[in-house]
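Reviewer 2 asked us to include a model.

Predict the structure of this chain.
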Amino acid sequence: MSRDHMPSAERSADSAEAPFLELLARGASADAYERPVLLARAEGLPDGHVAALEQAKLLALSVRAEIEGRRRREAELSALFETAHDLAGLRDLDAVLRAIVQRARLLLGTDIAYLSLNDAARGDTYMRVTEGSVAARFQQLRLGMGEGLGGLVAQTARPYVTDDYFKDERFRHTLTIDAGVQDEGLVAILGVPLMIGPQVIGVLFAADRRARVFEREQIALLGSFAALAAAAIDSANALTETRSALDRLGRANEIIRDRSAVIERASDVHDRLAELVLRGGGVQDVAAAVSEVLGGTVEFTEPGGTPPTAVEAARSAGHAVRHGEDWVVAVAAGGELLGALVLRGHPGLDPVDQRTLERAAMVTSLLLLARRSASEAEQRVRGELLDDLLDARDRDPGLLRERAARLHADLDGPHVVLAARFDTVPDDAGRQAGARRRLWSAASHLAATRHGLAATRDGGTVLLLPLGPGDTATSLARRTANELGTAVQEAVTVGASAPVDRLAAHPEAVAAAYTEGRRCLEALHLLGRAGDGAAAEDFGFLGLLLAGDRDISGFVGRTIGGVVAYDERRGTDLLRTLDAYFASGMSPARTKDALHVHVNTVAQRLERVGRLLGDDWQSPSRILEIQLALRLHRLSSEGPH
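Predicted model (structure tokens):
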């Protein structure tokens, strides 16, 4: 359709938009958008045309605002990228911080921007960089911690803004700060924290000499610059420390190069030890490396493995000592003796080689402490997970499985909960605590090697161990009691629960199983079976009282299951014969009258029972269990009427 044939309303709208498109194209100021409307009114154009111009003006201003916003965000991102680039090529910290402050001032359009840093040595904060400042006193301000707006930012680690500094009572004013701010003529101030991790190291400010409201986007932008400034400071500090370390290393290498071949050998062992540490070597690797360098045999011995007089002499002297044909150096940390390094059959040892042996002892102690720390950390994590299972605090199966997987444990497989405790506990509180620590350490090691969990509870230790192929709760309890007792050199008694599985989906089962394990543990103590391990199934009918789930069918099956199965297969009456036999006071003659059979038939049936239940089936303890099992079987067979 040609323009001449377009409806008048469309031509009016089209002509109304034209001047505003031109204004948008040349980037005119917001005031210029009023001119087309004013001209139309002055020329007396129709109201419809003026209304169309008004509508086109509003639309054009909206487009202009969107374009300006995009330009502003583009400029902000560009400045952030440039600052990040400066940080990546960090050479001069002051230059990077100045660039950050300059760009922050430019993008926020403030009169001044500045950055202060905390001085931990003097306990105050000071101006590091200012941009746009004209007052010398302001540029040299040193403030006490917690003073002024910057103190509030540092205390809360959050941005703070004031549109009128002198009227704001949220922070503590001081004469020094107020005088400096007044010299500079500041009114509106925005401050955001500079943070390295959780620590506030300073504050980045933007301020105006007139009242102003800072928008949320401006606060976020200044926060981004503050993060870059903190990263620059952190990188510079790390670079300084690295350079210092390199300088020290360089000086040490110069000294080594100036010494003899003996010192070169010491440098070689130092490099070897460092390599061992970096690749995760162990104590025996250190001993082997030092043996090769010193041309002898170096052994690490546990505490007590070397004559205590020699170890104590080396520990007191703080260096290696000669002991006969050997050299001994204590491996200790923080006053704790961890063992000793012994150089065998090498009586002649020059001072540098002696120092090499001592350095090896120090590296050994660090490796032992690192191994202990890693072990203790893993033990804590295992203990926390088992505590959560025992208390049923965490009921999210997915999260429980994820936490267990990190520890190489599988909560969906069959497990046994074991309660372990010393049979006798020392009266002395210190020795008691030491004994419990040893038990906890041994249990944690056992749990880690078995892909289980361990925690301390109720004065003892509780373990959650997987049930392996061919294992029973009883065999696992006895093996655990034996291994823990061997590790701590004392009798450890262990009570076990019946097997439980799908613990991620049913964490409450762990607490019930632990209660059952503790009952078995108490029963072992009462029976005088110290250092033994057992499960509820080992106590016969008493196991029904100990078991948390009252496994009646399991008890019946273990006690008279053979007789029940025989009757079912052969159609015999052995169970009824046993009932009559016990009801008749164990008299075959009265039994045959009750059953209306010949006495020889009774004898044959009882002989068959003996072969199925074992020769001791008529012992007092077995009789009680068999009678109880018969009663329970009869009740379960009768069912509800």
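The longest strand covers residues 199-208. Residues 47-88 form the longest helix (42 residues). We have added this to the supplementary material.
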